[in-house]
Amino acid sequence: MDVQPTEALLSEVSRGDREAFTRLYDRTAPRVLGLIRRVLVDPAQSEEVAQEVYLEVWQSASRFDPNRGSGTTWILTMAHRRAIDRIRASQSGRDRDLRVGIRDYSPDYDNVSEQAEIRLENERVRQAMQRLTELQRQAITLAYYEGFTQSEIADRLGIPLGTVKTRLRDGMIRLRDEMGVAS
Amino acid sequence: MTDRDDDHSITSGAYVLGALSPEEAAEFEAALSASPELQEEVAGLRAAALALAHAPSPVQPSAELRRSVLAAIDGMPQQPPAATPPPASAAVTPIAAVLKETAPRYAEHHVSRRRGRRARPLLALVAAAAAVLIFFGGTLVGGILNGVSDERTADQFAALNAAPDVARTVTELPNGGTAALVASRSLGMSAVVLNDASGELPEGKTFQLWYMEPDGPTSAGLVQPGDSSTYRMLEGDYSGEPVAMTIEPRGGSKTPTAPAMVLANGA
């Protein structure tokens, strides 16, 4: 069992350790690809973006600061940014169909084995998401996972911009409180 | 809830989710710089937004992806660690003291270098700025920043503002308006946000940003203030060095030709 913390692996990667990089990849890739797929849906594009993410991890591992948060979050933040970049660039015509329906949040671990702590974090967020109102969850999903701006969300849902702002803010406040995130 | 655009506090959720346009983000950012309450709220909501990355179900990557990634890093260069920050004593040296000590010498140097051209009214700007340092020299070439409307830039700006180590420094400009530096060492990125700064620039001039590195200032790009709020991602890699701004002829200069306002003393 690979018990070395992700942060320690990143430190070794920053010194050019390929073996540490391989272990880091094996540990985090399912989560990274899961997030990217959640945004992009298309499997081939998602793997392309995942590849970009890992090349960035290799190149910029020295920039990771363990005092600023977990290594997994650092990599996932990169993955989210690149996935949103991609969806905005590839669908600039805004011809995306509106996937308003909230996707299934039930766990789906059939083919994936993971560290228990990661699974726990995943479960915690899912449960917190379930505490939001349907409308809050919808707005947050459109913004974070679909890459829509607040104005686009207002257009698509046919509601005032102020209402979108309020839903996003109230939803994030509740998510923060449910997660027990220190502010 | 009403649809008041000037009520920034209700925009905090959209902000941490990256759902603002570049203009909206810059405007919010300006309000954020001025409000500790808003900064506290954003910090909490940002942490919650980071947690959203953990919610989707994992997906097993193909063997091909693994092979391809591991092959691609072969021989691929890596960024060196960010520069070590200067010792605390150096970092907190009052800029005014530096100015007092070095201004006359450099001012002379400036005049001779510029073949006797009269010092511009910018000196007034320098005297009034909160933190000031005058410098010349440096050899590196600057460039022009990319268009601000570009969505990739907007995402970079959002990522910068979402960085856990993001630092903001607001400098009041003498003729009104502010210049805020937003910087993150962990991302190696920085941006400048200008608010109501257009009164500062004479015709035919532009603001130019500089990384103040030990071997001289390196251009970090040009920025032209808009009517109200403008931001630009700075060029090059931010590694905690001081960042300064000068007024230069449109098109920019290779080295600063005017006294510089220090926007941040370095992290």
Automatic annotation (TrEMBL), chain B:
Membrane disposition: Single-pass membrane protein
Ranges of residues in domain Anti-sigma K factor RskA C-terminal: 125-259
Keywords attached to this entry: Cell membrane, Membrane, Transcription, Transcription regulation, Transmembrane, Transmembrane helix
Main location, first listed in the record: membrane
Cross-referenced InterPro entries: Anti-sigma-K/W_factor, Anti_sigma_zinc_sf, RskA_C
Species whose genome carries this gene: Naasia aerilata
Superkingdom field: Bacteria
Protein localization: Cell membrane; Membrane
Name of the protein in question: Regulator of SigK
A Pfam family it matches: RskA_C
Transmembrane domains' residue ranges: 122-145
UniProt keyword annotation of Membrane present: yes
